[in-house]
Design goal:
alpha/beta, 243 residues, four-stranded parallel β-sheet, Rossmann fold, 9 helices
């Protein structure tokens, strides 16, 4: 969940270099640093003061207490920024070091032009909505354009204006079948994992475990039944084990 904090008060309790780092994060988000007694603040960062964290939580303030995950209502992810594109990596407070290491790896392969692509899509929002008034058609069209080797592939040279001028329609209905060899989601092929990440719906047998179904898009339908003869709009993925 990303919160808009611009112009809003955020409590900061504590001092030292760790508190200074929290202050920079608050100010970078456009929020205003305030003291513990500010009655309007809904979020707080607490460094080295367990009693303050307890008091603030008792008031209903959401607290991030440094190195005290048991007192945290929210945790801070390691982030990668490319303009308006923000990638957040979190371990739920288990290990900030691991989150930072993953962030560093992601940083090396995210293109520098992602921010410009996001800005271009934002500027073209009204025209994109006019072109595809239906939400699902719009989502599929954008998804196809942003896919690998698509006209807006972020790792190539995406051009939003050229894409909109191309006359490309939303993708036709498609159904693909993936035969599983293992109940372990780490054994999914790259192709199957990509299909699941794009699927509008997943048809599956009774023996397909939830761990594999969880690799599908969060809003994709999970249907424990055979697929229809005629594909529904978007991408349908059929999962089952060999034999």
């Amino acid at each position: 969940m990303f919160m808009r904090l611009h112009g809003k008060p955020v409590i900061l309790v504590g001092d030292g270099h760790m508190a200074d780092a929290k202050r920079r994060l608050i100010e970078r988000a456009g929020a205003t640093v305030v003291a513990e007694d500010d009655a309007q603040a809904r979020f707080a960062f607490v460094v080295g003061d367990e009693a303050a964290a307890i008091r603030l939580r008792a008031r209903g303030v959401l607290v991030n207490a440094t190195d005290r995950p048991d007192l945290c209502d929210f945790t801070m992810p390691a982030i990668v920024e490319r303009g308006d594109v923000i990638v957040a990596v979190s371990t739920g407070g288990a290990s900030a070091g691991l989150a930072a290491q993953l962030r560093q790896r992601i940083e090396t392969w995210l293109p520098a032009g992602l921010g410009a692509l996001a800005a271009g899509l934002k500027a073209a929002r009204a025209r994109i909505h006019a072109r595809w008034p239906d939400f699902d058609d719009r989502r599929r069209a954008i998804g196809a354009a942003l896919a690998q080797d698509g006209p807006l592939d972020s790792f190539a040279a995406p051009d939003v204006e050229r894409w909109l001028a191309s006359g490309i329609d939303a993708p036709a209905p498609q159904m693909v079948t993936a035969t599983l060899t293992s109940p372990d989601p780490d054994d999914l092929t790259l192709r199957t994992a990509r299909w699941l990440s794009l699927a509008d719906r997943v048809y599956h047998g009774a023996t397909v475990p939830a761990a594999i179904l969880d690799r599908a898009r969060g809003d994709a339908e999970r249907i424990a039944a055979p697929p229809p003869a005629t594909p529904l709009p978007g991408l349908s993925v059929v999962l089952d084990f060999a034999g």
